[in-house]
Amino acid sequence: MGAAHKLRIELRAGERLFHEGDPADCAYLVEAGAIDVKRKQDARVIGTVQAGELLGETGLLDGRPRTAGAVAREPTSVRVITREHLRERLEHADPLVRHLLHLILDRYRTAMGVTGASGLAPDADLLKEDREAAMRRLRELHELEAALAQERVEIALEPVVSLADGTVAAFRAWPSVAGTPIATSAGESGLGPELGRRVLRAAAAAVAPLPGAPKLYVPVAGSHLQAESFERDLHSAIQAANLAADRCVLCVAEAQLMHVAPHARLAQLRGLGFRVGADDFGSGDSSLPALAGLPLDALVLSPSFADGLAPGSRGAEVLKVMAAMAHALRVQVVVTGVASESAAGFVRRYGFELAAGRHYSPPVTPAEAAAITARRWS
User: Fold this and answer.
1) pLDDT 10s digits, 33-79
2) Phi and psi for 121 in degrees, rounded to 5?
């Protein structure tokens, strides 16, 4: 039938979609009608998949042959979900979720008595990597949960320098435990809202009284942004610290922007007086046209942009393009990861306004921030 090569398939009543034992190269979403699932041994209907339900998804994920056949009970239309549709999403999924998914699939297939694997099922080395990554993820979550319970979450403040006059224009807030930055993935977990509340309160309290009224670039996890309490948490933090909303730049990781921060949500925050930025820009897979359509005030570049800057290098050319794009979109850009005078020179020459990195100062404690505001960098 060549079902895997079509995006939509129309079936007559009694027409077979696939046979038991066929290669599992796609899954199906039943758009209208119904599909009966049958085993070859007795031709008995073991289940019926109705409109809006999925069919064949386990075979798509692990690539093993179909464990049953599928026949249209009535005139039916199905949408095809190819392996390519899911492969990239699965590769970028949380390693803990990915590892658990493969374990569940393997145990299910073992119970069904089916052997052999291909398709999206990883090889032994990748399974080992996933297992190790999943364990790291669990440790991060457990450590963060304990740190929150024991009030051990701290913030560090990284100076953001104005390249026009060498003064401190802003601070980037970094949550940490015992001096170790908290992994972004941990912040995107269910602990994100509570972590976000702590960071907002601590960062606002630290930056509000500083001389020169520097802005605060504060990270916002997607899980916190989506929480019902988010706006309440924002206002509570800035009111307690007496910090104006327009001094706050709410930085959402680029990888999260397109999924949890629709245009209307960002516009709403800006309407409340806050500024909105894309954090770690360049590390995700968002398209430039999509990002250009979002109401952003700032782009905080991934440190990778500043790595290995040299005349004529690819990094230097990319930075030139980023500078032109920023001016066209009327957004401020923070170049992070600037580690040397040479890199700082490139950033100045390309017309960027703001930069951060070891060349200027490592992150400091809130107690050290006031002294940093008195410094000037040439």
Assistant:
1) 999 999 887 778 889 999 999 898 877 766 678 889 999 999 999 99
2) -65, 130
